[in-house]
Design goal:
The structure holds two protein chains of two kinds. By secondary structure, chain A is α+β, with helices and mostly antiparallel strands. Chain A has helices spanning 4-17, 19-57, 86-95, 129-133, 146-150, 160-166, 210-217, 239-253, 269-312, 314-323, 327-364, 372-398, 402-407, and strands at 61-66, 70-71, 74-75, 99-114, 117-126, 138-141, 155-158, 176-179, 182-190, 205-209, 228-233, 264-268. The chains are: A alpha+beta, B alpha/beta. Chains A and B meet through α1, α10, α11 and α13 of A and α2 and α3 of B.
C-alpha cells in the first residue's frame, strides 16, 4: 500500500481545490459532532446536578409517614392518620441497629416576624438528630440539645434564605424572632444547601424543638403526634435492613395484627433520587443518540460528495491505474480523503460543541459538563463515519476499468 | 528471447448476437531494443492490441508473454504491478494529473512501487533534467506547453526504468515542429538507452522515425516490414 503522508497530501490538495464544497460537506460533521458533545454535556450536567442534590437532601435517608384513613369508603390520602409519635422516633433510635440517626418532624406553615420584616415559611418541629439526618452543618451558633426538647425551649435554627430576608447584615444569633406571635431565640444558622430536586429552596426553613412546635405552633389533639419521622441508615448497604427494622418495630408498637396492613408508609428517599438520577442518565443517552443521527446524516453528505468526486476524477483514477495503482491504493486514497473531511469536521465540531455547551450554560443557565469521554466518543465516531461512508465511493473507484477510465471525458 | 511475444492473440466482444473480432489471431514478436510503429485505420484493432500489450486488458484467446511472463490469467493487481515495473505509457492527451506539479507527476509510478520519498524526488528531478525540463519541476501541466507536457509524460514513463514504452499517438495533439522534436527524443531514447518503443500512429511521417512498421486491418496483421531509411 502506498504511504500515508503522500496520500494525505493528495487528499488535502483535492479537498482544497473544492474549498466551498469541502466546507459544506464538513459542516454536516461539524454540526453532528457539535450536537453530540453539547447534548452529552447537557445530559451529564443534569445527572451531576441530581447527584449533588441527592447529597444535599441527605444520603441513606428513609422517611416514615403515617398511613391513610378511610372514613365511610372515602380514603383520606397519605399522612391523614395520626399514628406516628415522638415515642416511635425515640424507639427507632434506640432499638434499630441499622439506624444511625432519627428526627421526628412536625411541620407547619407560619408567618415570622423580626423587627419590621416578616416572611412566610415552613417551620419544622424536630430533634437534634435532624442535622445528622440531613447531612447538614451549622455555619454559626449551636444545635439543639436534649434540654431544649425536654423543656420545650423557644429556640430556633434558621436557614440561609430566612437570614437573608429578615436580617439585613445583622448577626441573627441571639436575636428574637416571632413565629405565629411566639418569640423564639435564634441559636444557630444552617449551612446553605440550594435547591432541591423539585426546585424547592432547601434553605427556606426554620427548625424548632418538636415539643415547642407541638405546644405553641401546631394545635393538634393527639399529644406527641408527629407528621413524619426521618431516619438515616448507617450506610447505603444497610438501607434495606433499616427499612425492615423500622417496619417491624412500628408494627409491633402499633400492635398491628399480622393480617393487617401497615398504618404507616416507609419511603426510601435515596432510592427515589437514584431513580431520578437513572432517568437523567437515560436522558443523556437519548440526547446523545438523537444528536448522533445528525452525525450520520453528515456522513451521508460525505458519501454523496465522494461519489461526485469519484465520477469527476474518473480520468485521474484511470491514469493512476495505468501507471500501477493497485485496488487498495485507489481505495486508500479515497478513504483517506473521506476520513480527512470527517476528521477536520470533527475537530471543528469539538470546538463548536464546547462553545455550544458554554453558551447554553451562560444563556439558559443549565449546568453543562463537557467530559473528555464525550469528546473522544464524538471524534472517534466522526472518524468511523468517515471510513464507513467513504468506503463505498472508494470501492466504486477501485472497480473502474482502466481503459474506460482513461477514455472518460 | 523476444521481449514481447504474442501467440494467436484474440479479443472478441459480444455485441448483441454478433461477435466482434477486435483482434483475430495475432502472433508476433518484438525484441528488446526495437522501435516499432503500429499503423492502421480506426477500428483496425491497433488500440485493442496496445491495450493488451500494455496489460490494461485481458485477451479472450491466445497467449501473451512479456519479458517471459505469461500475462493471461493474472489478477487485476498483478497486472497493475507489471504495468508499473515493465511499461511506460505515453498518451495522445498527455494524461498528466492537473493540479499536480511536473515533479509529482513523474514521481507517481515510484509512489506505487514504494520507492522512498528522497529517492523518488531525486530520480524525478533527474528524469525531468534529462528531458530538458530542469527548473520546471514545480510547474503545473497548465503552465507548460503541449511539447513540455508530453516530455513530462515521457519522463514519467522512463522514471521506473521500464523496458518498454508504449506511445499511443504521442504527437496527435502537437504541431508538426514539436511532433518532430518528440519523435527525435524517442529515437534518441531507443538508440542511447536501448529502450523498446512501441508507437501507435496513423501518420506515415511519424511512423518513419521507427525501424519497423506493423499494419493492422480488421483485427489482423496485414503487413510487418522494416523501415528503409533513405
Amino acid at each position: 500500500m502506498i504511504n500515508i503522508t503522500s496520500t494525505l497530501k493528495i487528499a488535502l490538495r483535492a479537498l482544497w481545490v473544492n474549498k466551498m464544497r469541502s466546507f459544506l460537506t464538513m459542516l454536516g460533521i461539524i454540526i453532528g459532532v457539535g450536537a453530540v458533545i453539547t447534548m452529552l454535556a447537557v445530559g451529564t450536567g443534569a445527572s451531576e446536578k441530581i447527584s449533588e442534590q441527592i447529597a444535599s437532601v441527605g444520603s441513606n435517608l428513609i422517611i416514615v409517614i403515617p398511613g391513610s384513613i378511610t372514613q365511610g369508603g372515602i380514603r383520606m390520602g397519605m399522612g391523614s392518620q395520626s399514628t406516628l409519635t415522638r415515642d416511635d422516633a425515640e424507639a427507632i433510635e434506640k432499638e434499630c441497629s441499622a439506624v444511625k440517626a432519627v428526627a421526628p418532624v412536625l411541620n407547619t406553615a407560619a408567618q415570622i416576624i423580626y423587627g419590621n420584616q416578616n416572611w412566610a415559611t415552613g417551620v419544622y418541629g424536630t430533634s437534634p438528630g435532624i442535622l445528622e439526618v440531613k447531612d447538614c452543618g451549622l455555619v454559626a451558633g449551636r444545635n439543639f440539645i436534649d434540654q431544649d426538647i425536654r423543656s420545650a425551649n423557644k429556640v430556633c435554627l434558621l436557614g440561609q434564605t430566612i437570614v437573608d430576608n429578615l436580617f439585613g447584615g445583622i448577626d441573627p444569633i441571639g436575636q428574637i424572632i416571632r413565629i405565629k406571635k411566639v418569640p423564639f431565640t435564634v441559636i444557630g444558622i444552617l449551612e446553605p444547601k440550594g435547591q432541591s430536586l423539585m426546585g424547592q429552596d432547601q434553605d427556606d426553613v426554620i427548625y424548632v424543638p418538636v415539643t415547642t412546635a407541638q405546644k405553641r405552633l401546631v394545635g393538634r389533639a393527639t399529644p406527641g403526634m408527629v407528621r413524619s419521622i426521618m431516619v438515616k441508615a448507617i450506610s447505603a448497604d444497610h438501607m434495606a435492613l433499616a427499612e425492615k427494622q423500622v417496619t417491624e418495630l412500628l408494627r409491633q408498637r402499633h400492635r398491628t395484627g399480622s393480617n393487617k396492613d401497615d398504618d404507616f408508609t416507609v419511603r426510601n428517599l435515596t432510592q427515589m433520587m437514584q431513580v431520578a438520577e437513572q432517568s437523567a442518565n437515560v436522558m443523556t443517552i437519548l440526547l446523545g443518540a438523537i444528536a448522533s443521527i445528525s452525525l450520520i446524516i453528515g456522513g451521508i453528505g460525505i458519501m454523496n460528495i465522494m461519489l461526485v468526486s469519484v465520477t469527476e476524477r474518473t480520468r485521474e483514477i484511470g491514469i493512476r491505474m495505468a501507471i500501477g495503482a493497485k485496488t487498495w491504493d485507489i481505495r486508500v486514497q479515497f478513504i483517506i480523503e473521506a476520513l480527512t473531511l470527517s476528521m477536520i469536521g470533527g475537530i471543528f465540531g469539538i470546538v463548536t460543541g464546547v462553545t455550544g455547551a458554554n453558551i447554553l450554560s451562560a444563556v439558559a443557565g443549565w449546568s453543562t459538563i463537557v467530559s473528555a469521554l464525550s469528546i473522544f466518543l464524538a471524534f472517534g465516531f466522526s472518524g468511523l463515519v468517515g471510513i464507513f461512508f467513504g468506503f463505498y465511493p472508494a470501492y466504486k473507484a477501485s472497480l473502474l476499468n482502466p481503459i474506460d477510465a482513461l477514455r472518460y471525458e | 528471447m523476444a521481449l514481447i511475444e504474442t501467440r494467436n492473440l484474440c479479443k472478441f466482444y459480444n455485441v448483441g448476437d454478433t461477435v466482434v473480432r477486435a483482434l483475430d489471431n495475432v502472433s508476433l514478436q518484438i525484441n528488446a531494443g526495437e522501435f516499432v510503429a503500429i499503423m492502421g485505420h480506426s477500428g483496425s484493432g491497433k488500440s485493442t492490441f496496445m491495450n493488451l500489450i500494455g496489460c490494461l486488458d485481458q485477451p479472450t484467446g491466445g497467449n501473451y508473454l512479456l519479458d517471459g511472463i505469461s500475462i493471461s490469467g493474472l489478477q487485476k493487481d498483478e497486472l497493475a504491478d507489471i504495468r508499473n515495473r515493465k511499461i511506460g505509457f505515453v498518451f495522445q492527451g498527455f494524461n498528466l494529473l492537473s493540479r499536480t506539479s511536473a515533479e509529482e507527476n513523474v514521481e507517481l509510478p515510484m509512489l506505487y512501487s514504494h520507492v522512498p520519498v528522497k529517492e523518488r524526488k531525486k530520480r524525478a528531478k533527474e528524469a525531468l533534467g534529462k528531458l530538458g525540463l530542469a527548473g520546471r519541476e514545480d510547474h503545473h501541466p497548465n503552465q507548460l506547453s503541449g511539447g513540455q507536457q508530453q516530455r513530462v509524460a515521457i519522463a514519467r514513463a522512463l522514471v521506473n526504468k521500464a523496458p518498454v514504452i508504449l506511445a499511443d499517438e504521442p504527437t496527435g495533439n502537437l504541431d508538426s515542429k514539436t511532433s518532430e522534436e518528440i519523435m527525435e527524443l524517442f529515437v534518441e531514447l531507443n538508440q542511447a538507452a536501448q529502450t523498446t518503443i512501441i508507437l501507435v500512429t496513423h501518420e506515415p511521417d511519424i511512423a518513419r522515425f521507427s525501424n519497423r512498421i506493423i499494419r493492422f486491418m480488421d483485427g489482423q496483421v496485414v503487413s510487418d516490414e522494416p523501415v528503409v531509411k533513405s
